[in-house]
Amino acid sequence: MDNIIHILAAELGQPENYVNNVVKLLDEGNTIPFIARYRKEMHGAMDDTVLRDLFDRLNYLRNLDKRGRRSSGPSRSRAS
After folding, report:
1. With 66 labelled, which of 5, 7, 43, 72 sits at a CA distance of 20 to 30 A?
2. Cβ atoms < 10 Å from Cβ of 22
3. Going from the N-terminus, what domains does the chain have, and what CATH number goes with each?
4. Residues contacting residue 23 through CB under 8 Å, at least 6 positions apart
5. Using an 8 Å Cβ cutoff, are 36 and 46 in contact?
6. Per-residue pLDDT tens for 16-56?
7. Region 5-25: what's the mean pLDDT?
8. Neighbouring residues of 12: CB distance < 8 A, sequence distance ≥ 6
9. Phi, psi torsion values for 72, nearest 5 degrees
10. CB-neighbour burial class of residue 70 (10 A; exposed 0-12, middle 13-18, buried 19+)
């Protein structure tokens, strides 16, 4: 998870602690508009567009990570 936070912070040009805060808020079920309006102290100056980009990229990276872990499981040999 820390790797995903690091990647998101670098891609969005935001401090890692703010990105981590937003990820936690999203994981708790908070919406982008709510976070943008009422949790500014937790994300600095991110507007709803940046928050939406973070949300979309977070989902993409998590899905990519899941697929990578799934495909690196025990390999099955095919019967010829």
Report:
1. 43
2. 28
3. 2-68 (1.10.10.650)
4. 4, 5, 8, 54, 58
5. yes
6. 999 999 999 999 999 999 999 999 999 998 999 999 999 99
7. 97
8. 19, 50, 53, 54, 57
9. -95, 10
10. exposed
